[in-house]
Design a protein that fits this description.
The complex is a heterodimer of chains A (235) and B (408). Chain A has helices spanning 48-55, 78-88, 104-115, 119-132, 148-160, 178-195, 206-209, 229-234, and strands spanning 4-17, 20-33, 37-41, 63-68, 71-72, 89-92, 166-170, 198-202, 214-219, 222-228. Helices cover 37% and strands 29% of the residues of chain A. Helix content of chain B is 56%, strand content 17%. Classes of the chains: A alpha/beta (235), B alpha+beta (408).
Chain lengths: 235, 408
């Protein structure tokens, strides 16, 4: 039995927007084991983005508990959350979110700068990560000189840099065409299968979700369906 | 997060927007160079005044009768002497411990004739140690001696202006000139001293033993002197000397306690101090006006940093998501503004130094580029960076990462 990376129990999230209280999450329980590849699906407003923010330690639950690698995130300070994001989570966003006018290598090294690694180690690991996404020769390029697919692969290399427990991808193919989507998803799958990296991927495209081992569906702030790949394709 | 990483990040961020960086820096450059130029000019003016003051002699006191002779008749009875006497000067020299040299001074003026040349000038009669008081040097020949004073010898020492006007390039030493139909032998020529603080030519003068002026030149029936020049042993004791001379003279003139003095003791050091004070105030005034422009430059920095924080909201969100603590973001932005100000400071120091040198050339003033002013302006620039960079940096650090990531 592999150890649990994410354990969320009865999570509630309430936003106070002026007079109206918005219940984004209404009691979600959710687990991800080490080495799993999980896709989270659901229409907009279903709470999946809130879920993503909470898993990514950018936000905290109002009620309930969240343990990441056995650490109770609710009790941590802002700085400790930043350190957790730095050490344990690799983010991949829909819009790539690379830092503009900064070289590919510098972008990939950035998480290691915040981790305080020595410069040679940063370079060694960044080059390794770039090689693993097949962009070793692009380290001097600037993000705007790369195609969308290449940019997303750089983002993926950046996410891998600090050897996180978890890669959290928010619609990583949302801005890519079908062919580059496949390219990127193949890399995700390769990282998961060959390197045993845990991946949580949020998407609304069924054919992207199909790369995952397990699919979790959100509706109205609750998990409405959970199942393997086969069941998803049938529904 | 290491110091080097922060500076490197700030440097890269500034390099991305070169024109913006340059223009913002320009505000600080102008501020810093204005402070340095103004303070240098002010200190130059102060040095000028100081030089002129010290050219009048160092630690000098002037003792004068309170009412000049002739005007005294209306004031007192015959047994009240208002005149300062040679004996008084001798007593000052011998009895006041803080006095180094005292000399009687008899002022006159005369037409000096040498061959077919003539020159109207001031004549100062004094004793043989007068040059020590005035802090003056002999250029050619020598000053008159004690024996000349005792014998009221017809010897004369010329100021540079007088010597040049009467003799041109020829050697005046040993030549004879005529003053009021009597021949005098030239024994020396004074070194050039230049203008006084009041703008008169100090070299337009001739000096003789005071006894010679009294007896030979003016033919006084009752010998009298105009004033006494006194130098104290050092700058700190001028005030003490002033008080001691006053006590001595009150005693000698038998002035009852509470009675008005019949003399005045003027302290040139006090005047010099006052002049010094004036230029100091001027320097501070100029400096603070310049400092205003530095503050304006600082506001420019703040403005640009606020714009930059807004522009880079998304970048801040990304940095936070991948694990930057709020404090790292704050340090990065603070480092950017401090770096802007330090660039500005360095360029400003150089520019300000050049500017004050140019002013020095133009006005012929001894402008001093002081290291203190440069260091002060530079650290003030850095402080400006921290002060005006802090608010934008704090604003950046307090952004919510979720909101910042969503920012378009």
């Amino acid at each position: 039995m592999s150890p649990t990376v994410i354990r969320i129990e009865d999570a509630h999230k309430v936003y106070n927007t002026g007079e109206v209280e918005v219940h984004a999450l209404r009691g979600v329980s959710f687990e991800v084991k080490k080495g799993e590849f999980v896709a989270v699906m659901g229409p907009s407003g279903s709470g999946k983005s809130t879920m993503m923010n909470i898993i990514g330690c950018l936000d905290r639950v109002t009620n309930g508990s969240y343990l990441l690698d056995g650490i109770d995130v609710a009790t941590l300070s802002k700085d400790q959350l930043a350190d957790i994001r730095n050490q344990k989570i690799g983010f991949v966003f829909q819009s790539f979110n690379l830092i503009s006018r900064t070289s590919v290598l510098d972008n990939v090294m950035l998480p290691m700068v915040y981790a305080g690694l020595p410069v040679p180690e940063r370079q060694r690991r960044a080059r390794l990560a770039l090689a693993s996404v097949g962009l070793a020769e692009k380290e001097r390029s600037l993000p705007n000189q790369l195609s969308g697919g290449q940019q997303q692969r750089v983002a993926l290399a950046r996410a891998l840099a600090n050897e996180p427990s978890l890669i959290l991808a928010d619609e990583p193919t949302g801005a890519l065409d079908t062919r580059t989507s496949e390219e990127v998803m193949n890399i995700f799958q390769g990282l998961n299968r060959e390197n045993g990296i845990t991946i949580v991927l949020i998407t609304h495209e069924p054919d992207i979700a199909a790369y995952a081992d397990r699919i979790v569906r959100f509706r109205d702030g609750r998990i409405c369906e959970e199942g393997g790949r086969g069941e998803e394709l049938a529904s | 997060m290491k110091f080097r990483d922060i500076t490197q990040m700030a440097f890269q961020a500034l390099g991305k927007n070169k024109i913006q960086t340059m223009l913002t820096t320009l505000g600080i450059v102008i501020g810093v160079s204005a402070v340095i130029a103004m303070v240098s000019v002010g200190q130059g003016a102060s040095k000028l005044v100081q030089d002129q003051m010290s050219s009048m002699g160092t630690n000098v006191l002037q003792v004068m009768p309170a009412a000049p002779r002739g005007a005294s008749g209306a004031r007192g009875t015959s047994d009240q002497s208002v005149a300062l006497t040679e004996a008084d000067v001798e007593a000052i020299q011998n009895e006041v411990p803080t006095v180094k040299v005292a000399s009687p001074v008899v002022n006159s003026s005369a037409q000096i004739i040498a061959g077919n040349q003539n020159w109207q000038t001031r004549v100062e009669g004094a004793n043989e140690r007068y040059l020590e008081i005035r802090d003056w040097k002999i250029d050619q020949g020598s000053f008159f001696a004690e024996s000349d004073v005792k014998s009221a010898a017809r010897v004369i020492v010329l100021g540079k202006t007088v010597a040049v006007n009467l003799f041109g390039d020829a050697d005046p030493i040993g030549q004879t000139i005529r003053v009021r139909n009597l021949p005098y032998r030239i024994v020396g020529v004074l070194a050039a001293k230049g203008q006084s603080a009041m703008g008169t030519d100090q070299d337009d003068v001739a000096m003789m033993p005071y006894t010679t002026v009294q007896k030979k030149m003016q033919g006084q029936a009752i010998l009298s002197i105009n004033r006494a020049s006194v130098s104290a042993i050092d700058a700190d004791s001028t005030s003490v000397a002033q008080a001691q001379i006053a006590d001595l003279l009150r005693q000698r003139h038998k002035i009852p306690p509470g009675g008005p003095d019949d003399f005045r003791v003027n302290n040139l050091t006090e005047i010099a101090d006052a002049a010094q004070q004036t230029t100091l105030v001027m320097t501070l005034l100029l400096g603070s006006i310049a400092a205003v422009s530095l503050v304006v430059g600082g506001i420019g920095i703040m403005n640009i940093m606020l714009v930059s924080v807004t522009e880079r909201t998304r970048e801040i969100g990304i940095r936070m998501a991948i694990g930057s603590r709020g404090s790292y973001i704050r340090m990065q932005f603070l480092a950017e503004s401090v770096m802007l100000c330090m660039f500005g400071g360095i360029i400003g120091v150089v520019f300000g130094a050049l500017l004050s040198l140019a002013v020095a050339r133009l006005l012929g003033w001894p402008t001093l580029v002081s290291v203190q002013a440069a260091a002060l302006a530079f650290s003030f620039a850095a402080a400006t960076g921290i002060f005006f960079g802090y608010y934008p940096a704090r604003k950046a650090a307090s952004l919510d990462p979720i909101e910042a990531l969503r920012y378009e």
